[in-house]
Structures are given as C-alpha cells and as structure tokens.
Amino acid sequence: MVTLSSIIRPVGRLLHRQLSRQGKGQRLVPVRRCNLTACSSKYVLSHMHPMWQEPLAIPGGDRQSPIDIVVRKSLFDPHLKPLVPAYDPQTCQQIWNNGYSFLVEYDDTTDKSTLKGGPLEDQFRLCQFHFHWGESNAWGSEHTVDRKLFPAELHIVHWNTEKYDLFEEAVMEENGLAVIGVFLKIGKRHEGLQKLVDALPAVRHKDSTVDFERFDPACLLPSNINDYWTYHGSLTTPPLTEAVTWIVMKQHIEVSHDQLAVFRSLLFTSAEEEVQKGMVNNFRVQQPLRGRPIRSSFSPFLTGDEPAL
Ligand SMILES: [Zn+2]
C-alpha cells in the first residue's frame, strides 16, 4: 500500500536539496507550468510568457500563491507585531544556480539566523533567499499590489524550528515556513546587493555553485519592515505545499537596471546543453484568493503615509 508519507517524504527530501542546499546527484527540476485560467492577468501573461501556457502539473489547493494583493480589501490588524529578523552573516555559505533561480544558502543547523515577530508565533530559521524576475522591467514579480507588477521579487525563506526538526517536515506541514517577500523596482544601484551581483557570473550555468560568505540578507530589506501584508499561502515552486506564512513588504527596494541585467545573464541550462536559455520570467502566475483574508500591519487611513508603490 502506498502511504501518503511514503510519497511526501521523498518529495520533501528533493525539495530540501532544491531549495535549501546543494545535494548530491540528481535534483528535482522545478516545473515551469501553471493553469492560466487561475491567473488574474491571464490575457497579458498568455501572450508574454510561453513558459506558463501548459496546464498545472500539480493538484492545486485552496491556498496557493502568489496572489494579487487588493489594498482596499486587506484588513488592518492592530495586533500584528513588528517583524524581528536576526541574521548572522557568518551563516551564509554559497550561491547555487538550481536551473530556475539562484539560491543564496545559509547554514540552518543552528539558531544563529532567525526570524520571529510579525504574524509569527514561533521562531523560524533562515535557510535561503532567492529572486524571481522578468525579461523586461515591465514584469517579473510573483505577487502584485492592485495588479501592479514589479520587475523582480525577493523571497527570504525560513522554517519553523519550534514545531519541526527538519526542513523536510516543515515544508509539508501547516505553519512550517515563513517567507518574506520584497518587491524590487528600478532606480538607484543597491550597494548591499552589489556583492552578490559581482559573484553571479560564477553561477551562470544550471547546477553551478560558488562559495559565498558573510552576506547579511537584512541589507536587502526595505528601511521600514513594520508595514507589511500577511496571508496563508503556498510555495510557488513544486511541491507547491500550502505551508507558507507570507509576509510581503509594503515598501520596495531599488536596484539598478544594470544589476537586474546580471540576473538576466544567468542561464536555465547547464554548460553541456547545446541550446542555452536565458534565466528570465522565472515566476509562477497568480492563483485565486478563494476568500482568504489578507491582513495588513498598517492602516493608511491612520498613518497618512503615502503608499510606497
Ligand atoms: Zn520564490
């Protein structure tokens, strides 16, 4: 008899290698397919992104990501606390081109780099961060705000070490992951990002890795991390499990066009492949909200802040 855990555990192990650190041997290649009928901007995307035109290969649930954040429908929750990231740059280990994005991976065997506060009741541990981006500056983010697309989006991935012993468990379970999303806009050169940009040519091809040390992902957070939206959703790459508490920053960060051009110079393909494919449009299209509440930690009506969009 095939038990659920016999399926889930191997998938979790594959995902751990895929998302968290370099594994030995074969890796799972993320499926770049999605059901466009679920996409709020399907007309535009079906013409622009051939990568997403096939049916979704994985059964979808009711809490999938990414989504469009409709600002006027988000619910201000005054009980949401400030977010408390505490990252030790010494836990940074390497960059890995996994054939879909590049992952900056951290040692997650200890509690040296953690995230708590915000909507989170438990302490979470940093394992990696990565980006999604488009082939042009007109699109690239996974989440949108009132249908507004950004050129790129940063995801900082953490797992719940209070409830789970292993990342493989956390990724399959309720409240297992916490992911911070930050939108990138084109503007000034981002000085903190530049060290990473300088290292990227070494991981141009799929499956390549390079040592990368002493990088604090906090330098990629916007100056105001207290204003955010939060909702329950999923991973945006297989196995698309609905284990994620999303924390999407209201304030974006700025990077230069040249910095994003280096992201776009990476390849989906390995050095051995005859036809090389540029790493662009590595995002999942949007999923239905299905009645989920999106809470905000801020009320524009109370603070009078200009939206940072
Ligand atoms: Zn992501």
UniProtKB/TrEMBL annotation:
Catalytic activity: hydrogencarbonate + H(+) = CO2 + H2O
InterPro entries documented for this protein: CA_dom (IPR001148), CA_dom_sf (IPR036398), Carbonic_anhydrase_a-class (IPR023561), Carbonic_anhydrase_a-class_CS (IPR018338)
A Pfam family of this chain: Carb_anhydrase
GO molecular function: carbonate dehydratase activity; zinc ion binding
Cofactor: Zn(2+)
The family this protein is said to belong to: Belongs to the alpha-carbonic anhydrase family.
Protein name: Carbonic anhydrase
Natural source organism: Gadus morhua (Atlantic cod)
Gene: ca5a
